[in-house]
Amino acid sequence: MNPRLTLGLLAVLVALAGYVYFSPESGQAVQPAGKDKPVEPQAEVLQFNDRETQRLTAQRGDQRTTVDKSADGVWILQPSGEPADRLRLNGLLSRLASLRASRRLAEPGNLADFGLATPETSATIVQSDGAELRLLFGARAPAEAGTYVKRPDDPAVYVVSNAIAQDVERLLTEPPREPPTPTPPPATPTPLEGGPTATPTP
Predict the structure, then answer these.
(1) Within a domain: 144
(2) CA-to-CA distance for 167 and 76, rounded, in angstroms?
């Protein structure tokens, strides 16, 4: 076969393959504005020292749950003054302190596409030095196990684990009250060897 003819046919095949792959009618889902722009995987969303956190507030509309850390390190629900669930709060703060995203969209375009034009849910963290960090929660990401979030000081939109969003929402639906101390079961009388069962003295 003529080499020039072979090269010509190869060029036509490459051009056709490129058209099919990049054509908007190739069957690929159309994504919201901003989704076709480059994304950065595993981007840092928040970074702070959770041991220095003094206050955590979750808010959705008129609903609000706030916990403050006392001077001796005890978490207190506000305004009731009840002790809060230390393990639950420390676990959530530990994950927020080094929160990373599965995706970062540097130029997201229309925030309404991500449920972030007027976000309903937010988490606010106040550190011992007065520094404040805020995270806004938007819609669930389609076909992904994630939720869109944004910081007010950063134009980028991130996709984080649904578990983080659910745990923040749970602060509102199930405030982190300290669980009651389990009551020990009553002592079982020990039978006397060769005699009647011992009866506890009232």
Answers:
(1) yes
(2) 18
